[in-house]
Structures are given as structure tokens and as C-alpha cells.
Amino acid sequence: MSEIVVFSAKKIITMDINRMEATHVAVRGGEILAVGDATCADQWGEVRHDDSLQDTVLMPGFIEGHAHMMAGGMWEYAYAGFHDRIDPDGKLWSGLTDIDAVVGGLSDFADTLEEDQPLVGWGFDPIFLTSERMSKKHLDQISTTRPIAIMFSNFHLMCVNSVALEIAGFDQTTNAEGVIKGTDGQPTGELQEMAAMFPVMRRLGIDFRGLSQKESVIRAYGDVARRAGVTTVTDLYSQMETEDVSTMLRVTGSDDFALRIVPALGAAEGPKTIADKAEALAKLSTDKLRLGAVKLMTDGSIQGWTARVKSPGYVGGQPNGIWNTPPETIFALVEELHSLGIQMHIHVNGDEAAEVTLNAIEAALRKYPWTGHRHVLQHCQLMGRDLFTRAADMGVCCNIFANHIYYFGDQHVALTLGLDRAERMDGARSAIDAGVNIALHSDAPVTPMAPLFTAWCAVNRQTMSGRTLGVAQCIDVEEALFAITMGAAYTLKLDSEIGSIETGKRADFVVLGDDPLAVDPMALKDVPIMGTVFGGRVHLL
Amino acid sequence: MKPRLPLIVISGYLGAGKTTLINRVLAEDHGLKLMVMVNDFGAINIDAALIAEASEDTMTLTNGCVCCTMGADLFMAIGDVLDREQRPDHLVIEASGIADPARIAQVAQAEPDLVYGGIVTVVDGLSFEMLARDDQIGAQVAGQVSAADLILISKMAGPDPTLSMRLCVQARAAVFDLTEVEALAPLLFGSGIQDLPDISTMRHAPYLGWSSVSDRAFAYADLLALLKARPEGLFRFKGFVAHNDTSGWEVQCVGPTVNIKPLKTAQKMRVVGIGLRSEITAKQIDRWWGG
Fold first, then answer.
1. pLDDT digits over A407-429, tens only?
2. Do A396 and A376 contact (CB within 8 A), yes or no?
3. Judging by beta carbons within 10 Å of its beta carbon (0-12, 13-18, 19+), is residue A46 exposed, middle or buried?
């Protein structure tokens, strides 16, 4: 029998209503043996006391219910975004807040590269830099011999330097939509959409999506998660081929890998094919790699005006968004997967997409009754009380994109929806009141993975400009902390194993430098993450 | 240098008949080595006698054509085809039922190793009017038509002039009812110069072939202006055009789209065109192209 270790802490926030607070937790063989005071495990025999965490606050390890493995892989390239960001090794990358800063920051990075190595950056967001558009002129200041490509944060645009244009064969004779030209008839360096970016990406060997399949990337994802206090993370739109699964099994299976990954297979093919693949994957599940769920796409994004929204649509009069999966295919996929007992995570940004999806689930439920399916709507940004009520009626969970309020809230007021609908976006209060099981997410790498920040967003609903957007939708700190632990565990059907510090569950904790229930709610995002405990093993930063 | 690879995108809403069209093209006797990437491999239905080899996601036919699934990432798949030792004669990509075909086809205008072969949109003649009015998907279905260089109407007993006219106006593309098309390859891929006489003498052929070989040379701007002024009805035009002693142009026009790419070797002008017999005569093409 493994030894019994009793950890002490300044405070243990359990998320278990039977004992909301404790000072000690006993662990045996990766499992929680008892929770209480210093004597909580004495009945079980000899114990070893570990007081190394006695000055910290412990909570159940955070669960990020919507993120992408790419959040680890991105760091193979230079960060060029507006906001400060911390890489998997803990290095702070200061936000680059004007074009000169971008050029300066990337020049410093270029100095660390081999002479002929391309400089690739990511995360650049022109929304925040309004002075002038980035062009080859700026990037040529960094190098006139090394190819440079800077991917924008939305992944739909990039800017490249003159060398990269030449390598891709772009010049005044290039007549391709997306290869933007200036008044002189020459390409400016800006490339719009994949078709125009492809010739550069192919020649520089840039492959953002392929980044999820390498060991170094999986490990970087583990580091990103640990720095955020996350012990279970999703990878929501995984494209797993046989060899990828064996890499994932090998890496996640190693003892020093302190993270549980829950991938959801991207539904890129017909219902039957996807169902077969998901069922085959489910059989390969291990404790630290939970396979078998499926991710469906429906519409686009609100800030890109591609989400499908209900009347009266976008405030600028833009046409309604686009379906990535047409409604009749959503119905077919939902029916097939539901009938086979496969849990689905379904991307819905706009309210029309949410409505069509709920209609599809309702139709499937009438045909194949299934209590406990726990299908999850992901993002849920425009759902109102009516749609949340329907979700609750059917036992559908909602994972809400709370970080959007901070990062894009001001844009939604000004450009996409107008104040009244922006105030009810990501409406966690309505969802909870309607009886929906909710989680909150970052969609990393779209926004940084940091569940306490995500909880802060849902609690305070403050935007980048400092505006409080929709005070009626604010939730309590307790509710937000529940959503990033037990709520998220429920959406992954792992609530019997993780999500609370409770006897019999996995010994997965986040180690905090302060008490999130005691600090000012506005300081929730600043509570320090000291590390995690995974399966009873301490991994401090 | 490997020859450039022409890319054709087959578009159309769910059930329009894209797969039927691809089955037909694969089985047709055109002498081309096609590589066809499809969404749903199971729906490809080829006479077993024509299949040389089949695996889970690739099928090789006895005529040298290959059909495969595109996998997780379409653009990566295109990159893989370009990196092959032996490129196929044409790459055909079946867009998903809701996809905007232009987002895929544009890669052929940007990528120096690809040639823009056009967007072919298959329209279900029976359901198009209803689909185009649908609140949820109407705009996207109509968008597939607007993006097309060539429209093929399926499922009809025969041509419907009203529908053809409507589609033609919306898309500025050539419109055919599939019942009036004997051989698909000339429409979809243009045709080798040596094949031209066959096109014009084809039974029921609604189109005519035209070709020209000469010593003329063009500056980029002049060539672009001329090609943009191409007479309607000349729906495919392609070939090689001289620039100077050390370089030339590769030209590919289909429907309303003009594509010119530089070549770093001297070229002798040789171009071919395919037009609609009902709309254009060889004399009109001669007059436009000039000496």
C-alpha cells in the first residue's frame, strides 16, 4: 500500500458543500483519502505530514473546458500581440502596443535566430493599433535578408517582408485576391485569408495547425496549463490520426506529465465516419487522456461578423454570418452521434446557431431519449434567457466564453451588436438562473488560458476600456469558482473524479498564493498561481 | 521545374450532384491523370473493373486517376500534392456543401506552382429556386453560384432556358444543363491543343475549339487588358505567351477570371480557347485576339 501523505494549507477551498473549507487533505496513491484537519487520516494508519504548502491556499485543480493544444505550439514562434503574455517557460512577453514596439520586439527576437532561419510571429492584433497598417516597410526594418511572416491574432491575415514576398513569387504581376497591393501596384506585404497566405507558409514551413501533434507541443501545453493552475484541459477540435494518438498516449502517460487532456474529435467528415472514429478512440482512453467526445462547428465569430445571429442582426447592417456546417448537416450529425451515445461539444457563437443546435438536439432526444447526454454548447455568446431555459430543459450544458467581455466587449458595443445586446452577451447570470450547468472558458490561444482571469471576467464584466458591460449578468465569486472546477468537470462527465477536494477523487489541486474568496473581487485575477498538485505530486512553478 | 498544376474546385450545395459529377469525370475516357480530393470517400462509386487499387482513403483507377480524401487540412493536402515527384495533370477538389469555393480556388491565383482552373458549381435544377430563398442558407447557396466560372445544372430532364438565364446573369459564368454535355473533360479542364478538332466535331457539341500559334509578344499590362476584354462566350482560354527573349507568361482564363503567371524561360505564343457555339464564332475570337 502506498504511503499516506497529509498536506497542510492555510486554507483548502473544497467546492464540496459538505465541508466547504478544510486545513488538511490526505492523499494516497494519487487519490484523496480524507479531508479535514491534521488528524483527518489517522484512522487509516501511519501518515507522513507534508507542510511544504502550509502557507498556500489549495483549491481543486482548475479545469479549462475549451482550449486548443495550439496554445502550447504557438510559442515555437515569436509573440507579437498587444497584451502581456507569459510563455510556457514562465517568461513574460510584454505587449507590443504600437508599431515601433512591434518592430523593436521582433528585432530582439530575430537576434536569437540562426542567420537564415525565418522569423515567424503570431498574435498581432491591428484592432488595437489604429495609427497605421503594418506593411512590408515595417518588417523590412527588421531584416532585408531573412524572410519574416507575422500572423495576426485572428489567423485570417498575415504581414510579410520583402524577402518573403520574393520567395513566394509575389510581385506587381500577382493578380490574386488577398495579396494586397499599394498605390504603386506592388504587394504591401499584407496577405488576407489562407489562399493568399499559403504560398508563404508552404515555403517557410509554417504550419500552425500541425503544431498539435508533436511531443514538444504537448509538453508546452502541459506547462501553459500548470502556470494557469489547470490540471485538466480540453483540446476542442482535435484531428487525431493513428500515429498522433500513440504520441499523445506516450507523452501523457509519462509520470512527469502533470495534466489530464480531454480532446474532442473535430467533426470534419460525414456522421457515420465521425461516429466510428470517436467510438474507436474512446476505447483507447487512459486516466490522463480521455478520448471519445466529438466537436461540431456551426457558425463563425461575432467580431468577424460571421456568427449567425437572430433578428435584427448586426448593427452595421452587415449580412448575417455564415454556416460552417449547414443546418441540415447539424441535424444529421447530432442525430447520428446522439443515437450512439456520443457526447458532443458544439460551437455556437450567434443565437441563431444556438437555436438551430438546440432544435437538432431536441429532435434527436425525441427519437432517442437519453438522460445524461450532457451535450455542451460552446461559447454561447448571444444566448438569452429563452435559449438558456431550453438548454436547461434538455440537460444541455453551456460553456460560456467569459473572456470575450474583456477582450472584445468594447468592439461589440461599437461595431457588432450595440450596447443593449452586448450587455447580455456571455450571460452567465441568466444561464445559472435558468438552471443550466455552466463552465467558463478562455478558448486559448484565442485569449490566454487563466481560469482565475476568466472567473474575474464573469464576476466583474469589465472591458478593456474599463466599462462594466451588463451588470445584470455578473455572477458571484463562489459561482465563478464553481464554474471553473465542478461546473467544467460536469461538462466533461468527470465530476465523479475531479472538480472538488473530496474523499475518493483524484488529488489534483491548484496551489494559490492568496484566498480568492477573501480578496476584493476586482483582484481575483491577481491571485498568484504557485503551481499544481497532480495525482498527489507537487509541481510548483 | 515541375509543370504547374491546374486546380479545379467543384462546388455545390448538399445533394446537388457533385459526387455524381466526379464519378462521371473519373470514369470518362479523357486520357488525363486526375487527382480528385473528395469529402465523403464512401460516396464515390466507380465500376469495380476500373479500380486498380483501393485503400481506406485512396483509390487508384486503371486510367491513372487517383481519388482520395483530403484529410484534416485541405491546404496541407494541396501542399502534399505539389511536393509529389510526379504531379497529376489536374487537381480536382470537391468543396463541402456549404463552403465558399472561392476561398479554396483563390489559392491557385496566389500560389506560383498552381494554375487557376476555375470553379465549377453544380446546381440542382429542381431545388435551386427554393434553396436560394431559404432564410438560413440561401445567401451561401447563391454565393456558390456567384463565385462560379462554370455552372452545371443537374437533375433536370432537359435544359430550362429560364433557369439558365437567371444563373447566367447572377454568375457571369457559362451555364450548361448536364443532359446536353456529352463529354465533361473539355469543359472542366480545357483540352490539349491536339484534341481540339475533336471538340468541334463532337456530337451535339455546344462549344467550339479555337487555337492560335504565332510570334507575338506581350507586355504584362497589354496582355491583362486584352484578356479582360475577352468576348463573352469564350469561356476557357489558356496557353503560353511570349514576353521577351528570356521570359514569358502562362495564361489561364475561365469564366470571368483572368490568371497570368510569369515564366522564366522564353515562350512561343500558343493559346487555345473553348467557346459556346451559340454565342461566339471563331471569326469573332480571331478579331478579338488579332494577328
1. 999 999 999 999 999 999 999 99
2. yes
3. exposed
CB count in 10 Å sphere of residue A186: 15
Phi, psi (deg, nearest 5) at residue A279:
-70, -40
Task: Select the residue of A177, A270, A356 nearest B109 (Cβ to Cβ).
Answer: A177
Chain B interface includes A384 (CB < 8 A): no
Q: The cell 504581376 sits on which residue?
A: A173
Contact residues for A174 (Cβ-Cβ < 8 A; gap 6+): A181, A187, B110
**B76 vs A: CB within 8 A:** yes
Which residue of A165, A177, A191, A336 to mutate against B (max B Cβ within 10 Å)? A177
Residue to mutate among A156, A158, A265, A328, with most B CBs inside 10 A, is A328
For residue A336, the distance in angstroms to the closest alpha carbon of chain B comes to: 16
Residue of chain B minimizing CA distance to A311: B135
Residue A476 C-alpha, separation from nearest chain B C-alpha, in angstroms? 38
Residue B165 neighbours by CB under 8 Å, 6+ apart: none
Fold type of domain A78-205:
Diaminopimelate Epimerase; Chain A, domain 1 (3.10.310)
Per DSSP (E only), the strands in A82-229 are 85-86, 92-93, 119-124, 148-152, 157-160, 179-181, 187-192
- Residue whose C-alpha cell is 503560353: B240
Task: Give the ipTM of the model, two decimals please.
Answer: 0.86
The strands making up A230-238's β-sheet, listed across from edge to edge, are A62-64, A230-238, A260-266, A293-296, A344-348, A376-379, A397-400, A438-440
Q: How far apart are CA B162 and CA B168, in angstroms?
A: 10
Q: In percent, how much of chain A has pLDDT > 90?
A: 86
What gap in Å lies between CA A490 and CA A439, rounded to an integer? 9
Q: What percent of chain A has pLDDT over 70?
A: 99
Burial A396-433 (b: 16+ CB within 10 A, else e): bbbbbbbbbbbbbbbbbbebbbeeebbbbbbbbbbbbe
Nearest to B97 among A176, A201, A326 (CB): A326
Nearest CA in chain B to A266: B72
Q: Find which of A165, A167, A180, A202 to mutate to test the B interface (most B CBs within 10 Å of its CB).
A: A202
The residue in chain B having the minimum alpha-carbon distance to the alpha carbon of residue A169 is B112
Contact assessment for residue A331 and residue A285, using Cβ atoms and an 8 Å cutoff: no
A192 touches chain B (CB under 8 A): no
Cell triple for B94? 470537391
Domain B5-184 belongs in CATH node 3.40.50.300: yes
Q: What would the pLDDT profile of B151-186 be if each residue is shown by its tens digit? A: 999 999 988 999 998 998 888 788 889 988 878 888
Domain limits of chain A? Answer: 78-205, 210-534
- Asked if residue B272 lies in contact with residue A184, where contact means CB atoms within 8 angstroms, the answer is no
Decide if A207 touches B, using CB distance below 8 A: yes
Beta partners for B59? B54, B67
Residues of A within 8 A of B102 (CB-CB) are 177
CATH 3.30.1220.10 boundaries in chain B:
193-289
Q: Categorize the per-residue pLDDT at A87 as very low, low, confident or very high, splitting at 50, 70 and 90.
A: very high
Average of per-residue pLDDT values in chain A: 94
CATH topology identical between A78-205 and A210-534 = no
A344 contacts: CB under 8 Å, gap ≥ 6 = A293, A294, A295, A296, A333, A334, A337, A338, A375, A376
Q: Which CATH number is associated with domain B193-289?
A: 3.30.1220.10
Report angle CA A490, A494, A499 to the nearest 5 degrees.
70
Q: Is A389 on the interface with B (CB under 8 A)?
A: no
**Assigned CATH class of A210-534:** alpha beta
Contact B98 A170 (CB under 8 A): no
Query: Which residue in B70, B74, B76 has the most chain A C-beta atoms within 10 A of its own C-beta, making it the best mutation to test that interface?
Result: B76
Q: How far is B80 from chain A (nearest CA, A)?
A: 10
